[in-house]
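Postdoc handover notes: sequence design on the structure in folder B. Input tokens:
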């Protein structure tokens, strides 16, 4: 692994990666800890905040598409809507809708979007594959 590409990336990309890594770590912890506990609620808030900030920060990263939004930004919009939906379901006590919304949001917002960062030539590809 070579972190040099991240160190020379724009500050917004560095912030975006920091939020994404925070979201991934908090989401993994959520999967491990018992559900419905105060720890789950705090980790959930941290994961949701980090995912939301990751999605929002992506709107300031336009370098890959000549200064315009790309198709991957659709996942950022979906992530934001999913977070609102999951939060609303939790507040209403609809556990099934909350779980469905948050799992879908994590898979799309972290998993699918994260997979696109490993496309040859992109930052994560350069960091991990050379």
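Designed sequence:
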């Amino acid at each position: 692994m070579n972190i040099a590409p991240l160190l020379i990336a724009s500050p917004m990309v560095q912030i975006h990666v920091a939020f994404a890594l925070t979201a991934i770590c908090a989401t993994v912890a959520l999967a491990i800890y018992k559900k419905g506990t105060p720890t789950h609620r705090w980790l959930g808030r941290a994961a949701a905040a980090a995912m939301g900030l990751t999605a929002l920060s992506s709107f300031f990263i336009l370098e890959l598409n000549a200064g315009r939004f790309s198709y991957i930004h659709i996942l950022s919009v979906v992530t934001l809507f999913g977070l609102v939906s999951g939060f609303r379901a939790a507040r209403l006590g609809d556990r099934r809708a909350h779980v469905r919304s948050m799992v879908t949001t994590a898979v799309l917002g972290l998993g699918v979007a994260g997979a696109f960062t490993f496309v040859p030539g992109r930052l994560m590809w350069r960091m991990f594959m050379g």
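Context for whoever picks this up: The mean pLDDT is 94. Don't rerun without checking with the PI first.
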